[in-house]
């Protein structure tokens, strides 16, 4: 259960988010990616040696023993049949890396090494040469090097103390690329920009921004993909894409959305969230949301115009407690703030928001994480 102060702070954060300025201009490189220009995940199975007695307990991890026997066999060392290896300085690990686009053989990659057995620590270990494969089963890099583990641990007399995580570490520049991934960027007359979020309005604005500098070069395929005519020459194409990526576009506002984390009580919403008239009763809490029409009449002979506006009124009642009246706009920030002031817990907020959504009073997408 989270304290009322925590919930009030959450509501204040939501209110601040609701009054942020309208979307500012962003670069196309921040809004979209180029089709075919992507990372590729690599993974491999290997062994870390040189541990100070903190390796796998081989009686419980037979795959570690099997890997050692296979490795020694490849190096010309044959063990007598039935040999029972008791290893303490070796650990079986999974090695992962990300192959960036346009990586060429000979370039170095950072890798992450994670224990998959029962090793107590990988600190001080050395990863033995490990092939890294892609989703197609081909080897794209070879990894090897000394581990860098950010944690520390000690034990004595049955007591143990550990700081941070000792079962995973990284090796900067620990892998060498051996195979390049083919790229279709330099093929054909067109390249395709893919927006990170599907939005027809933003796609139209991106097309307009590109055509303003290169008339007729861009056209929208759908709400996410934009086809752009690019130069055939590789050098000219790279220069053209460099200019396109840095064009600034103001994206359209996204759909109204409310994100609720039921575990932490966090409520985050964007500036388009609003409520219609509704009345909500939850336990001992009663919430009423109404709109009031206000008419502002200018003084006689002033030349002004009569303005009609709508002001929101939020009334919240709690049995056995004080009656709280809040005047303001009928938006979700007012309701969340009032509920938190009364000490509503996170589950109250989630239940009330879900009921509002089901009743059609919450004009936003509600996502519970």
UniProtKB/TrEMBL annotation:
Keyword NAD: no
Subcellular location: Bacterial flagellum basal body
GO term, biological process aspect, one: bacterial-type flagellum-dependent cell motility
Leader sequence segment: 1-24
An annotated Gene Ontology molecular function: structural molecule activity
GO CC terms: bacterial-type flagellum basal body, distal rod, P ring; outer membrane-bounded periplasmic space
Keywords per UniProt: Bacterial flagellum, Cell projection, Cilium, Flagellum, Signal
Domain of life, per lineage: Bacteria
Pfam families: FlgI
Protein family per UniProt: Belongs to the FlgI family.
Subunit structure: The basal body constitutes a major portion of the flagellar organelle and consists of four rings (L,P,S, and M) mounted on a central rod.
HAMAP family cross-referenced by the UniProt entry: FlgI
Function: Assembles around the rod to form the L-ring and probably protects the motor/basal body from shearing forces during rotation.
Protein name: Flagellar P-ring protein
